[in-house]
């Protein structure tokens, strides 16, 4: 894991980003204190609609009124 000061990172940002994209992790230091970690970005997976079809069930009382204490907690 590479360590570099914030000041130096400002001047070498393009090079650092290339290294991070290749899997390197870089710790940014303010003086001698670590303040940030640069890690490769992992894109989020695309949403899969219908992934839980047949696995979830909505209870019969879903639209029933809330118990008084719970309704009061929600300000209803």
Structure report:
The chain is α+β, with helices and mostly antiparallel strands. The chain has 3 helices and 3 strands; from the N terminus they run E-H-H-E-E-H.
Produce a short descriptive summary.
With 76 residues, the protein is an alpha+beta fold. It is built from three helices and three strands. Strands 1-2-3 form a three-stranded mixed sheet.
Q: Summarize the main sheet.
A: 3 strands, mixed
Average pLDDT works out at 90
Termini separation: 53 Å
Structural class: alpha+beta
Strand content: 15-25%
Number of β-strand runs: 3
Low-confidence stretches: none
CATH topology of the domain at 2-38: YefM-like fold
The general outline is elongated
User: What pattern of helices and strands is seen along the backbone?
Assistant: EHHEEH
Largest sheet, order of strands side by side?
A: 1-2-3
In the CATH classification, which architecture of the domain at 2-38 applies?
3-Layer(aba) Sandwich
Key descriptive features of the protein:
3 helices, 3 strands, YefM-like fold, alpha+beta, 3-stranded mixed β-sheet, about 30% helix, about 80 residues
Helix and strand layout, with pairings?
Elements: E1 2-5, H1 6-11, H2 13-21, E2 26-30, E3 33-38, H3 68-73
Parallel strand pairs: 1-2
Antiparallel strand pairs: 2-3
């Amino acid at each position: 894991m590479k360590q570099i000061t914030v000041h130096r990172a400002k001047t070498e940002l393009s090079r650092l980003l290339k290294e991070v994209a290749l899997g390197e992790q870089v710790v940014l230091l303010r003086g001698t204190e670590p303040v940030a970690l640069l890690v490769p970005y992992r894109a989020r997976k695309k949403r899969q609609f219908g992934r839980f079809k047949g696995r979830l069930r909505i209870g019969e009382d879903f639209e029933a009124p809330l118990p008084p204490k719970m309704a009061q907690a929600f300000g209803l």
